[in-house]
Amino acid sequence: MLRTDGLPGADAGAFDLDHADSIELLRRQTGVLELIAAGAPLREVLTRVAVSLEELIEDSSCSILLLDPTGAALHHGAAPSLPATYSADIDGIVIGPDSGSCGAAAYLGMPVVAEDIASDPRWVGFREIARPHGLRSCWSSPIRGCNGTVGTFAVYHHHPHRPPLREQRLVERFTHLSGVAIDHAGLFGALAESEERFRRAFEDNAVGMVLTDAAGRTVRVNRAMREMVGRSEVELLGTALGELVTPTPASAARAAEAMELTRPGGGTRGSIHYEGTARHTDGRAVQLAVAVSAVRGANGTPVHLSANLLDITQRRAAERDRRARREAEVARAAAEAASRAKSEFVSALNHELRTPLQAITGFTELLRTLDLPADRRRAALGHIEAPPRTSWRWSTISSTSRRSRPMRCRSTSRRSTSAC
Known about the structure:
This protein is of the alpha+beta class. The protein folds into three domains: about 10-195, GAF domain (Beta-Lactamase, 2-Layer Sandwich); about 210-310, 2-Layer Sandwich (Beta-Lactamase), CATH 3.30.450.20; about 315-405. It contains 13 helices and twelve strands. The strands form two sheets. It has a six-stranded antiparallel beta sheet with strand order 3-2-1-6-5-4. The protein has a six-stranded antiparallel beta sheet with strand order 8-7-12-11-10-9, sandwiched between helices. Helix 11 (about 315-370) packs antiparallel against helix 13 (about 385-405). It is rod-shaped. It starts with 18 loop residues before the first helix and ends in a 17-residue tail after the last helix.
């Protein structure tokens, strides 16, 4: 069976590597896998792959190109035996049916052999790049990963060359190994990127954040929390959340419930909210709104507590100021109402007292003009001259009332610095 590129199919002649090649292949594959397991950089792993194949194929130079995220261009991955200037010249090559062996292999999704670069039509646009370096043949295979083509694996020679079945089998093995390395790097790269995003989100969050172990002991503290209490992370590590934040009396039960979230079955209760106070190293009390939730491990068991702590000191101070202003307004209104009631009472009393006093005074003056015996006039006047003392008392009250003006109240806000 032949493929469209003229290379035999995978089952042609049931060909397989001999024992010696298999041993060498196994040894080199093991070395590459050990690098992958050790977390070596992708370029180092791919260089080891290329060198391993070059040692098994005489007079060969290998190149591994990586397909960019857009799937449109290939970029340098590893080429230990090729001139650096050549690798730089083909870096960023756009894939297509006439983009040399590598660009065509990535585009078509199958191996592409150029037995003689000087005459291969797919190399028209790249022939002058290869010629100064003495490159005469190139065959390239697509590298497949878990999500499709991820790159190409090319073998160059300095003379026209067509790969025999042995070389094809070796390239198949190392192409597959390259795909494993690239997938592994992609997965770990994504994991590292995710961890970095979490680290930045944790560390740079404006809200204080604390991560504890299952026992409630601090294992990580972000910058906002460190600034709230004026202490370094080293000083805070190992501190119990309950020691770092003292719950208010009204929140004590909720805070105790939060510490149960890492117990069996406790993590199903979602987050728990309460209020508490932390103490800054300068003595200030910092009032906090606390939200605690469980962080589960791979098997779903709660293994950490995550606490978000929002500084509400200013909010609570503003609430106390608003309360004080409202109470002052109520007191002012009550005082003004009392002042108005007093004025109305004095006015009514003035009217009630002055009317009869004026009548008595008038009768007194009339009595003085009557022709009465002196003893009777004196007796009559003696009975009616007592009211002037009442009039004097009223005049005193009225004068005092006029001097005491209506009460004027004004509210004054008082800033409270102590925690309630």
